[in-house]
Every structure is written in structure tokens, then in C-alpha cells.
Amino acid sequence: MRIVVLPGDGIGPEISAATYNVLRAASEHFQLGIQTDEHEVGHASLKQFGSTIPPGLLETVQAADGLILGPAATFDFKDEQRGEINPSKYFRKNLDLFANVRPARTYPGLRNRLGDFDLVVVRENTEGFYADRNMEQGNGEILVTSDVVISLRRITRHCCERIAQAACQLAMRRRKHLTIVHKANVLKIGDGMFIDICREAARGYPGLEVDDILVDAMMAHVVRQPDRFDVIVSTNMFGDILSDLTAELSGSLGLGGSLNVGAKHAMAQAAHGSAPDIAGRDIANPFSLILSTALLLAWHGERTGAPRFESAARAIEGAVATAIQSGRATKDVGGKLGTAATGQAIVDILQSDKA
Ligand code: NAI
Ligand code: MG
User: Fold this and answer.
1) Dist CA 102 CA 268 (whole Å)
2) Cβ(285) – ligand 1 distance below 6 Å
3) Where would you tag: which of 6, 269, 278, 299 has the fewest CB atoms within 10 A of its CB?
4) Which residue's alpha carbon is at the smallest distance from atom 11 of ligand 1?
5) What share of residues in the chain are helix, strand, coil (percent, to 5)?
6) Per residue in 277-327, pLDDT tens?
7) From the CA of 9, how far away is ligand 2's center (Å)?
8) Ligand minimally distant from the alpha carbon of residue 288
9) Is the pLDDT of residue 355 over 70?
10) Whose CA is nearest to atom 43 of ligand 1?
């Protein structure tokens, strides 16, 4: 398996280095034969090549079996004409990574005030309110006069259908419960179509229980009783916001794994941003990117019919749980270790695991 690693900005290089060590250890322990290839994206690439995406990188990534993308300082990137491209949007769009799968679960030994839960947010990833990707040409935000802005939201039948199918398939492998999150009382046409398509897709999966909840009420429901949810499907921006909440409810935003999946490619990506407030201090939690990488290995194993990749993914997830329970983790999840030492703890647990 050939994986391209793009560390990114802020805490990106620190959490990527920890993730890289875990990947190497997993590759050795499970004989995965993983080869990695690292490139700069974000500010480092902008400085070197005049673009946040270096020349030829898309072709390199297209030829690889998977991609690990660290967070980028996307807020800094304002003008694509000046090479300031959002790497996250660039790969989601160019590799057509339409489903963003974001599991959130509680861990033994980690304080949580809401009781145990285990859910997955499945977020549409290619259209919706995201102005930098919902138009063929131009941008979905228009400055009509200096005082008037129009922000367009694109919802297509095709994108609703494929995200609905992805969510149903995942729910059937889990507890067979799908919750559609929307705002169809206001966005009657777009989210009305989204609900109809999700419900229609779900009819093809016998035994799948389906409900739907308005996105604002969902914020209360998920805080009140997160264990009532299994798979949650939503449009792009609602899913983005909700999944930061579910990650934090599970213990920390730094725990939110995320896999961007398309028909041919997948990209592991931390659910959080580049966290400039803690960058360079060896305190960032690397688990989000490590768990995302586990999702990437499981995806590759399923696609290629190689169960050892699935075993490696389960072992990494188990090692994260063990590390949390034994306090070998960063401060945000109750430990005392730095980023690098936390990565090393996962390596040690993997190497001591005789399974
Ligand atoms: P953020 O997600 O970077 O940080 C929010 C808060 O969570 C901060 O207090 C941060 O210290 C903390 N946090 C985040 N990740 C953590 C980790 N692994 N361990 C411990 N604490 C962690 O969001 P913020 O500050 O709004 O955005 C910073 C930059 O990241 C902006 O330029 C933004 O545009 C960008 N961003 C990039 C994303 C990506 O590349 N996928 C996604 C979200 C934001
Ligand atoms: Mg986000």
C-alpha cells in the first residue's frame, strides 16, 4: 500500500510525525508493506512553489493507494489566484471524496458527563454551502454591493443519493439505525429533497430504522442523550458542525477521526484544524489523525480483500483506547504526555500486542 503523507500547517507536522511512527509500527507488526511518500502542502509549499499545493502532487496522490492529510491553515488562504488553495477542498473535490465519515465514541477511563456512546456522522463532502467547491466556475459567494452578500447552497440529487447509500451501508454494518439531520422547515426544497432521497435509499435496506431531526434540535438531542444515535447523515455544513460537537462530547476535538471516501480514493484527515494556539509546543493530541489513519487502513483492507489491514486498524483503535485508559495520552484527554510521546505509547502498545 502506497500512502502519501502531507503534514500541513500548525500542529500538522507534530501530529503527522506521531501518526507516521504508528503507521510504520503497524506496517511492520501486521506485515502490510506500507510505503510512504511525504510532501509539503499549505504555507511551506506556498513559500517554496507559490502555491499551497506543489506542482504534480495531484498526479502523485491519484497514483497512490491512500492519502494522509494534516490540517492546513485554511483561514489564511484567501485568494486562489495567488496559489492560496485550501488543500482539504482541493483533494475532496479533485478526488471526488464525497463521503466524510466521522466516528465519535467514548472511552473507558476518560471522563464524560453524558454517558457512553458510539456514533458516526456521515457528512456530504462536495457541495452544500461550501462556496469554494459548489460551483463549476467562480465562487458560490457573491458580493452584490459592498453591503450585500449572497451565499449559494448547492444540493444535487446525485450527491444526496451517493451519501445516502454510504450512510445506509454503514448503518447496516452497525446497529441499523439511521438519523437524517436537516433544516427542511426552512430549506424546504433542498433539504426536502435530501430527506426524501435518504428515506428512499433506506427502503432498500430491510431492517434499517430511520428517523429525522432538525439540525438545531439535534444540538440538544445529541447533548441530552448521545447514545440514542448510531449513524447520522447530513449535508456538508451541518455535518461539519455536528461532528466537531460529537468529537468534543467524546472527550476532545483531538479525538475525532475522519475519513474522506470516494469511489476510488480515500483520505485520512484529522477532523480538527491546524490549532495555531498550541502549535510547536508538543501538546497537540495526535489521536484524531492516528484514528483517521486506522480508518484508511480498514478501507484499503476491505477494498482489496486483505483482512490484515482491518486487523491493523482494529489494533490501532484498541491501542488508542488502552493509552487513554492508562493515562498515556495528551492533557486534553487526561494524560500527561506530549504529542511525540503519545505517538510512541501507541507504537509500544502495538509492539507489545502479540495478537
Ligand atoms: P481548530 O480545530 O484548529 O482548533 C479549535 C480548538 O481545538 C483550539 O483551541 C485548538 O487548540 C483545539 N484543538 C484542535 N485540535 C487539537 C488537537 N489535536 N489536540 C488538542 N487540541 C486541539 O480550529 P480553529 O482554531 O478555528 O482553526 C485554526 C485553523 O485551522 C484555521 O486556519 C482554520 O481555517 C483551519 N482549519 C483547517 C481544517 C483542515 O485543514 N481540515 C479544518 C478546520 C479548520
Ligand atoms: Mg470542520
Assistant:
1) 10
2) yes
3) 278
4) 275
5) 45, 15, 40
6) 999 999 999 999 999 999 999 999 999 999 999 999 999 999 999 999 999
7) 15
8) 1
9) no
10) 273
**H helix or E strand, kind and range, residue 135:** none
Question: What domains appear along the chain, each with residue ranges and CATH number?
Answer: 1-99+254-355 (3.40.718.10), 113-249 (3.40.718.10)
Ligand 1 atom index nearest CA of 284: 19
The average pLDDT across 205-233 equals 98
How would residue 133 be classed by pLDDT, with cut points 50, 70 and 90?
confident
Euclidean distance between CA atoms 330 and 339, whole angstroms: 7
Give the integer Cα–Cα distance in Å for 295 and 266: 9
The best mutation among 244, 274, 285 to test binding of ligand 1, ranked by most ligand atoms within 8 Å of the C-beta, falls on: 274
Mutating to test ligand 1, I would choose from 41, 253, 277 the residue with most ligand atoms within 8 A of its C-beta, which is 253
